[in-house]
What does this fold into?
Amino acid sequence: MDRLKSIILTAILLVWSTAQFAQAPTHGTNKGDYLDCDDFSEGLAKINKDGKYGFIDKNGKVVVPFEYDYARSFSEGLACVAKNRKWGFIDKTGKVVIPFEYDDEKPFHKGLALVIQGDRETHKCGRIDKTGKVVIPIEYDDVHFFSEDLVSVKANGKYGFIDKTGKVVIPFEYDYAWGFSEGLACVEKNGKWGFIDKTGKLVIPIEYDDVYDFYEGLAPVGKGYWSQDETGFIGKYGFIDKTGKEVIPFEYDEADCFHDGLAKVEKNGKWGFIDKTGKQVIPIEYDEEPYFRNILAKVKKDGKYGFIDKAGKLIITFEYDDADDFHDDLAKVKENGHYGFIDKNGKVVASFEYDDACGFREGLACVKKNGYYGFLDKTGKEVVPFEYDYAWSFSEGLARVRKNGKCGYIDKTGKLVLGWY
It folds into this structure.
């Protein structure tokens, strides 16, 4: 994702998040008891009953009463809940551990949670710890995550950096700033990008039109301009080292960071991989951006999908109309309008007879046949009958299923253990 898209997404999320309690979604069509159920997370599942949210355990016991206007799943032992247009946090017993005083908040991540006070136009952001203590003052227009002990924050239209005590260590002078990676952070000023170190010293001049973080000692940077339409960045990318020296020429239409010694690059609408010398290790000949997952990468050529290894060797030939990445050592692929599954040798383990399919998770995959959903195991055996109107992947040993407008949970034998709700 290019920098402009990321900035736009961040802004949209901040604006969107402040209104979520007022437009909490209710999925499904059940008009009776439970309107909606969610995946289990940390042993509990969020449930909507008669328009109010609570939580049940895996025995179906209501452990958090149905009294909240909205809720988010548990994360790091706490859950965000809303009541009377204010947000707070509860623990797994339902005890309110952080009072209802925020206009929005996000789940805990690495011990901190984003909290927001104010409306869409005047909101301020900060972060709190699990005791409710304010770690980053709720006075900023934007707050990123800590990276390498510093966090990028926005005040009065400019970005700077503060440390974990809240002390400003890099002044507010940038139009945008990303977190630190390998000791350097991308910063923007007057439409151009450069890099600073943790003292705030400018170590790579602010002269690039797009930049990515440093990984494995190199960063992709772009020279060109931003189109006003959906075209995005128009120009060329190359790679620089931490001194700002150009080590790979500006010749690519798109580029990504290095991982395991390789970087994705695009040229003339085709994708491939280069090493740190700029040598093409995997030819630039594929039609879609590839990602290595579990050793192999899905690639597209001449309208068909196959899989390559990190040496660029074609492991699974180009014969599929669609394909997904490998999950649990199996990949979903499509042939003649139907889905099946293959292993990493290309052997078909589940025949092409399914109208829809999800990737394997916890050893089973959700598939659709003749209008109904069931589950396969990794041998391709149908272990849960096709009787559900919809089904979701397994989470913590249980899968959500919907039948006749009601929600329930099944185990891996297909036994209904909770429901119908």
Q: What stands out?
A: The radius of gyration is 25 Å. The mean pLDDT is 91.
